[in-house]
Amino acid sequence: MTAELAELNQYDIPGLIDLSASVGWDYDEYEVRTILESGRVFGHKNAAGRIVSSSAIIPYDTRLASIGMVIVHKEFRGLGLAKEAVRKCAESINGDMSLMLIATKEGKPLYEKMGFKTVDFISKFLCDQFVPVHLQVQDGVFIDDFNHSDLAQLVDLDGAAFGDKRGVFLRNRISQSKQCLVAKNNNGEIIGYGLSIQGPVNLILGPIAAADSETAALIVAKLALHHKGKLRIDVPEGRTDFMSFLQRSGFVKANTPPVMMKNSSAMPQRNHSLYAIASQAFG
After folding, report:
1. φ, ψ for residue 77 (rounded to 5)?
2. What is this structure's pTM?
3. Residues in Cβ contact with 118 at an 8 Å cutoff, skipping those fewer than 6 apart
4. What's the DSSP call for residue 115?
5. pLDDT tens digit string along 48-65?
6. Do 97 and 90 touch, CB atoms closer than 8 A?
7. In the Cβ-directed half-sphere of 216, how many Cα atoms lie within 13 Å?
8. How high is the pLDDT of residue 139?
9. 182, 144 contact by CB (below 8 A)
10. Among residues 159, 174, 241, which one has the least CA distance to residue 206?
């Protein structure tokens, strides 16, 4: 079986959706479009032009890039396609940048062979129906809908939380979002924000950054309010109080995939205000 590596574009969106469905992943047109607008996607096509592998890379503003959407069709496994596509992603950016990815159990051995090391973990939480719990209203904290005038502050706050600025991605993600909320203090300064993304199966909550777990919980409660259906949120390690709130609200921990890095021995420097990541593709 022959397959040729190529850079993929918007005309390949239906093929990428079919590929993701073949492994039980629920990428839709909006998610794939945001990936393409925020980064680059490489993949193999077979002789008939069908996409049989993919790997995406999203370079952020200065020193970090995220690899995701690493998929190989089951009929083409064992041929080294994933390794070739991931390597092509790495070669497409500045060699000084650190590479981050969140690994599946199946993918972890390959990434280790390629020089990636586990530096952290993410807890994936799923919820069939959100259960509102009583939250203490914090004095001087107001949750409001995002306004475009908030963007510069939001990008700065996210950069300190995530470990690198990611202005292009955030603009694209906010455009895609069902809802974007900001938390402000009495002075009108943004002290937190959160997005909800409607996927084909789940309402995805994230990224969420906040000054403390109480503010993060308020943002989640507002994003989940009135949603009838399944939700998903991916939480960095160490967010014990926040995870406890999620479990009281009907979320169940599904698994704990590793965060792996290459060209760096640790996570980027963060200020401990990231409570949920955007997705496993975006880090």
Report:
1. -80, 155
2. 0.95
3. 103, 108, 258, 259, 260
4. T
5. 999 999 999 999 999 999
6. no
7. 27
8. 82
9. yes
10. 174
Whether residue 58 contacts residue 281, with contact meaning beta carbons closer than 8 Å, is answered with yes
* CA–CA–CA angle 29, 280, 30 (5° rounding): 15
Residue 164 has pLDDT above 80, yes or no: yes
Indicate whether 228 pLDDT > 80.
Answer: yes
Q: What is the DSSP letter of 237?
A: T
pLDDT of residue 10: 97
Largest alpha-carbon pair distance within the chain? 64
- Cβ(278)–Cβ(102) below 8 Å: no
Nearest to 9, CA basis, from 51, 48, 46: 51
Pair 45, 72: CB distance under 8 Å: no
Q: Are 180 and 146 in contact (CB under 8 A)?
A: yes
Token output for 145:
């809908």
- Reply yes or no on whether the pLDDT at 252 is more than 90: yes
Residue 221's identity, in one-letter code, is A
d(CA 93, CA 81): 19
Residue 205 contacts residue 232 (beta carbons within 8 Å): yes
Range scoring the smallest mean pLDDT among 103-107, 135-139, 192-196, 222-226: 135-139
If you ran DSSP here, which 8-state letter would residue 200 be given?
A: S
